[in-house]
Write the structure tokens for this entry.
Amino acid sequence: DQRPTSTKPRPDDVYVDIPDKVRVATESASGEIEYIIEERERTWSENALKYGLSAAIRLDTLWPNAIKGLKSNPLLGSGFATLNKEFPYHFTEAESTDNNFLRVLGETGLLGFFSFYSIVLAGAYLSIKLFKNSYKIKNSVDRQFVVGLSSGYFGVVIGILLNAIYIDVYASSKVAFTYWALTGMIVALS
């Protein structure tokens, strides 16, 4: 157990006590209601203490927000970029859902989910088909290229789908540009 031994425990992946910022309504001298940001001692959820802050942010906030987005409109979701933080000073630095499947479901609903992942699966299917038909290619260098590209692409699809459980990998430009460029090559060669 790596948790601090102070009187107030904190998650093992939190090394500095940073106060929580809370929006508080106050009444001014003229009787108007004003809002201020007040710093308070941070409290931790059971998930944070048990699994760490990173997992707790997903379990307590991000993933339930995606499910709420799906429930708000099961067919079309809540819309793009609607699952972010509630306020700029919200306790988490996460700007996304940290689960690509839940993000697509929450933002685009069942229609968007099945549309998007059918494209991903179609690319995987085309790579398998391309691999199976590579024996028809007469030139050995071309055949080796097609076999390497199609089998490598299929591995990439599996890896990214597994990675999508904990990261919005299809929204990451570094991954997405390369992935969709490879998908275009697979489609063109098919």
About this structure: The two ends are 53 Å apart (CA to CA). Strands lie at 20-27, 33-40.
